[in-house]
Amino acid sequence: MTTHIKLKGVAREYEGMKALRGINLAVNKGEILTIIGHNGSGKTTMLRLMALLDDPTNGEIVYNGEKINKTNAAKYRKEVTMVFQKQVLFNTTVYENIAYGLKLRGERKPNILKMVESALDSVYLKNFGPRCARKLSGGEQQRVILARALTLKPELLLLDEPTSNLDPTNAKIVENIIEKLRGKTTAVVATHNIFQAKRISDRVGCLLNGKIIDVDTPKNIFTKPKNEEIRRFARGEFF
Q: Which of 210, 183, 3, 188 is closest to 80 using CA atoms?
């Protein structure tokens, strides 16, 4: 498989506190990689580094075979979209929320209409364009946020706890949307939900206390853990 993005010995510190410790991780093109870990384990920090929003304190990030630096970061940043755990919708229509990023990129109006309609179809919200985004249910709002990200056609999509606080029905819909990306868009999903990781992942990375403990198939991670630390995590003892 072709590696899309690779972290090599990556560490990140905030005011002397070590959020990530020597992370080595390769994400394959077109796969769904889930990063599991308890709150505070470093998942969001790692996604921000992958999104090229922050720089590592140590180590390097390689994107499509090229080491990221100050010269090329802006170019590759356009290929990556991150959906944060807490993301706000504008107080306007669903259409305007999704079209916003396309307008910033200079897309022509006829193209924007088609792209927004396609994005709404992909998240099962056909004909929702004229509705007020902030008056939708929580699950519907999360799907609008996903549509806004997908309409930018990212090569790499980073999702931070995409189903937190959603009811089971909407959580399942969001998982279906993510699974449809397989083979088309590289997706990295950070979650503390081990059951979700079992359902949607090609591979699972276990991040504990700022360190990647293991990366393997869901079956191996959850039924054949390599050490006691992963075994305890899979049982939910870290939550």
A: 188
- pLDDT at residue 50 in the model: 98
**Strand ranges across the sheet with 58-63:** 17-28, 3-14, 58-63, 66-67
What is the pTM for the complete model shown?
A: 0.93
CB 192 within 8 A of CB 211: no
The whole-angstrom separation of Cα 181 and Cα 26 is 19
Read off the tokens for 163.
């189903």
Give tens-digit pLDDT for 25-77. Answer: 999 999 999 999 888 889 999 999 999 999 999 999 999 999 999 999 999 99
Query: What secondary structure does DSSP assign to the chain, as a single string?
Result: --EEEEEEEEEEEETTEEEEEEEEEEEETT-EEEEE--TTSSHHHHHHHHTTSS--SEEEEEETTEE--TTTHHHHHTTEEEE-SS-PPPSSBHHHHHHHHHHHTT--HHHHHHHHHHHHHHTT-TT-TTSBGGGS-HHHHHHHHHHHHHTT--SEEEEESTTTT--HHHHHHHHHHHHTTTTTSEEEEEES-HHHHHHH-SEEEEEETTEEEEEE-HHHHHHS-SSHHHHHHHTTTT-
Contacts of 83 (CB under 8 A, 6+ apart): 145, 146, 149, 157, 158, 159, 160, 162
The amino acid occupying position 222 is: F
